[in-house]
Structures are given as structure tokens and as C-alpha cells.
Amino acid sequence: MQNREISPFLKSALELGPVVAFFVAYLLLKDRTFDIGGTAYDGFIVVTAGFVPVMVAATGVLWWLTGHLSRMQVVTVVLIVVFGGLSVWLNDERFFKMKPTLIYLIFGGILGAGLLRGQSWLRVVMEGMVPLRDEGWMILTKRVTVFFFALALANEIVWRTMSTEAWVYFKTFGLTAALFLFFMTQGGLFQRYGTSDDEA
Questions:
Q1: Looking at the predicted structure, is the pLDDT value of residue 198 above 60?
Q2: How many domains does the chain divide into?
Q3: pTM for this model (two decimals)
Q4: Count H helices, E strands: the chain?
Q5: Which InterPro entries match (predicted)?
Q6: Is there a single domain that holds both residue 85 and residue 147?
């Protein structure tokens, strides 16, 4: 299947829509308890049970429309299925809360392994979006690696020390804002090590 371009709006809707739906559903159901098969499930678990198939479906549609999924998208949806499924199966919200930690540790570990080999594996994922010279890629990869480990630590602190509601807000808005701000602060690096069309 060949890679195909789709509208940025549709792509964003498929990637972010399930997360927004999870947040809205959680706000609506957070204070409710559901008796299913003789077992009581709180709103968070029920919303998680709905989020997993919605995320899988959205990722499947994205693959069907574009003919391509990044390794990051594949790993993310697999971890959502595994840890979301464990939370629902064991009726224990902690597994789903651990998921961002594992995602960031895995990505940080992969990038770190590449750095130890003197390679920027971030370049493989982002080269089409960010034209940089070799030195710039190495610097950016080091920064992203540290940033991913910091996000993993932040998620652990939040879910272990704060309420479920606080974690949902942190997951929905805090982590997203942190990623946005991080790349906004890399403007100097992009200017200094960016390549022109002639150099690319």
C-alpha cells in the first residue's frame, strides 16, 4: 500500500479525537459506578474500556487512509491495548496510568540506544518534517531523549501522588502542552542547524 496524503485536519482528528473523547467521557462518568456482571466498575474503568477500541479504530482508519503508520503510533496503540486491557480486566486503574511512563521510557531508551551507536534515530522519524544538518540532529536527539525520560518521571509522580482526576487533566493537557513547549523552545537549534533546500 502506497503512502497517501490526507488533510491535516482529518489526521489531527483521528490522532487526537479519541483522547478528547476520553477526557469528555471521564468528566461525564467520573462520579458514577457501574455494576457489570456482579462487579462494580468506576467511571474511569468504563471510560478506559471504551477508549481502547475507539483508539484502535481511529488508528486503523488512519492506516487505511494513509497507507502508513509510524513506529511511534504502532507502539502507542499496542501499549494502549495491553495496559488499557489490564486495567479493565483486573478492574485496576493503575495499569492504564502507567502507560505514558512506559511509552516515554521506551522511546527515550530507543533514542538513547541510537546515541550510544553515534546515530540519531529521531532523524528516521522526523527528517521529512525538520530539515537539519547531522550535528543538529544529534543535539536534538539528546534533548528529546532527556525530555522523554523527564516526562516518564513526571507521569510517575503525578499518578502516584495525585487524584485520578488530576492525572486525567495532566495526561490530556499537561503532557500535550509540555511537548508543544519543548519543540517551541528548540527554535534556536532549528535556525542554527537548519538546512536550505539546496543543502538538503
A1: no
A2: 2
A3: 0.86
A4: 9, 2
A5: YciB (IPR006008)
A6: no
